[in-house]
Every structure is written in C-alpha cells, then in structure tokens.
Amino acid sequence: MVGACRCSSHSAPPARPDDVIDDVTDDNESVSDIIAKANKDIESAMTEGDVKSDGRRNALHCSSCKWPKYGKYVSIYYHFSNKYSECWSYIGRVLYYRRQSLSLSSACLTTATVQHELFHALGFTHEHSRSDRDDHVTVHYENILPDKKHNFKKYRTNNLYTPYDFDSVMQYQNWAWTSNREMTLTSKENPKLMLGIAKSASDNDFLRVNRYYKCPV
Ligand SMILES: [Zn+2]
C-alpha cells in the first residue's frame, strides 16, 4: 500500500539538504541520516553504513542465514545491545554466534531505524542495493564521498517478487554520503522524488518478510 500522504510527500520538490552529521537526533531525520550520524566513528568497520558482516554473506541466498520457524512463529535469538553507541546489525542469522548482537543506541530509537535494523537481522539488504536497482535509481558516484562508495554496492538479491519500493524503510535518502551537497541517489522515473523518508516500514517490507519466511500474507 502506498498511502496518499506518502505520495504527496514524494511529489514535493527536494529540500536543500541539512548537514547530516550533527549532534542532534530528530524524529524527522531520515534513517540513513540517523545511521550516518550514529556510526560516523565506526563506519569504516562496516560492510555498509550499518551492516556488520565480512561481506561474503548474502542471507537471501543462504539457507543457514534464515532464522528458524516453529509453527507460525519465526524465532530470532537476538541480543539488543546498547553497549555500543551506534546503529548496526548483521544480515540474517550468523550461526557461529550464540547471542547475536544488534546495536541500537539511544540515537537509533526511532520506529524507522529500529525496523531498519531488524529487517537487516531478518536477512534483508538496503533497497538501493537490490539486484534490480539500476532499473529504478541512479547512483551518482561523482557526488559520493570517495571512502563511502562501498555503501552503494549492488548485491545479488532475491527480491521475492516484490517491486522496488521507494517507500521502503530500507531505502536511503537522496543525499546519503554526499561529498558536495549534490544528490547521490535519484529515482530514474522522477529525479525529484524524495527517497528514504519513510517513518515506518512499508507494506512491501512486511510482504518480503512474510514471503521469505513463508508466513501467511
Ligand atoms: Zn542499513
């Protein structure tokens, strides 16, 4: 479902970007801005901005990365950790951890950011990393900070017959990791479309989880 409210928001012309690296968390900030701010000191240790992985795992093509399902419930053995001051998760289940951590510092405690990290934990990548992303978004590499270009890698994802979703809580915003205040991500169909402004997960986000874990939809 794409609500009328979200549609009208998306049709607005893009605002001038604020400095995304500041010291104040604001509920109106995008998920990617919150993550970039919280992870500014550890981003180099991440495969992507908030993904902790060795880069070889791809949960959507890895059966052991899926969480077990008993009856109609999927069990996620997670240790929500606030001992770190960042927002990050592994992609899917990591079998060699008895207690898999997911970091949610106070700076990450917005609905969208918590859902974003949980979707990573369930096995999902960023929306702009989908295998079909080049049909839907343009990545402006010339505007990306040189040491942040790894955040725009495309992966071989199983998209579970769901459409590319600009309203996904996994979609980063237009100026993510910009070096020059120019956009780094734009919609191919509408370059003025505001991306990454979801305040909560979309129906497609939930549909993917249900399809991946074979839950009734
Ligand atoms: Zn993320």
From TrEMBL:
Keyword field: Hydrolase, Metal-binding, Metalloprotease, Protease, Zinc
Organism of this sequence: Knipowitschia caucasica (Caucasian dwarf goby)
Binding of Zn(2+), residues: H116, H120, H126
GO biological process assignments: proteolysis
SMART domains linked to this entry: ZnMc (SM00235)
The organism's taxonomic lineage, starting at the top: Eukaryota, Metazoa, Chordata, Craniata, Vertebrata
Entry-linked PROSITE patterns: ASTACIN
Cofactor info, note text: Binds 1 zinc ion per subunit.
Cofactor(s) annotated in UniProt: Zn(2+)
InterPro entries, per the entry: MetalloPept_cat_dom_sf (IPR024079), Peptidase_M12A (IPR001506), Peptidase_Metallo (IPR006026)
UniProt-recorded name of the protein: Metalloendopeptidase
Domain Peptidase M12A: start-end pairs: 1-216
Pfam families to which the protein is assigned, alphabetical: Astacin (PF01400)
List of catalytic residues: E117
UniProt EC number: 3.4.24.-
GO molecular function, one term: zinc ion binding
Region (Disordered) residue spans: 1-21
Family matches, as SUPFAM superfamilies: Metalloproteases ('zincins'), catalytic domain
